[in-house]
Design a protein that fits this description.
alpha+beta, 7-stranded mixed beta sheet, Immunoglobulin-like
Amino acid sequence: MLVRLFACAAFALVLTASASAAPSLSIQAPGSYTPGTPFACTVVLSGAESLFSYNAELVLASGSGAAGTDFYFQSATVAAAPRYLFSGENTDGFAYNTLGPANVRLTLGDFLTDNFLGVTTTAGQNDLIATVQVATSASQTGPLTLSFDAAGLELDTFDAGPIAGFAGLTSSLAPAVVAPEPASLTLALAGLAATWFGRRRRE
């Protein structure tokens, strides 16, 4: 009898923990990039309940190089369709929009057309919003930062109210920082040093 009670209590705790798990939105990116070679990162949303529509703006920035020329968003796709958060549902169609080369912003959005209850996103199953390609020039040497614009973020239920846990999610958004590969950075610095010494000699 005690064993059954213990098992039921443990099961109830698991259900409570899973039901109250806070939603998480993140950008999964590599730790480094090779200048002149595109790299991919994924936008992932897990633990969202009754999700009916979303709108997310990504911002790409760097302390070096020219935005839109030395670094920019190249594309956004749902490459692994079965893992797409609205996979198998009728939607208005996944859409992305790049907002001007000077801003280097990317807008991702979609909504359901026949499932008014929305969907619950589960990590590793249906948590993928998009796979995003970032391009850089061969002369880009600084770290790149990818972040969400919290002001433009919408994760709504059918009644247009935010999903449960939205406030906590927006306050915990973290940027992804991708640094140039050490070898590439060394080459770039060596080139700058050679240029500097060449100018010193001429003076």
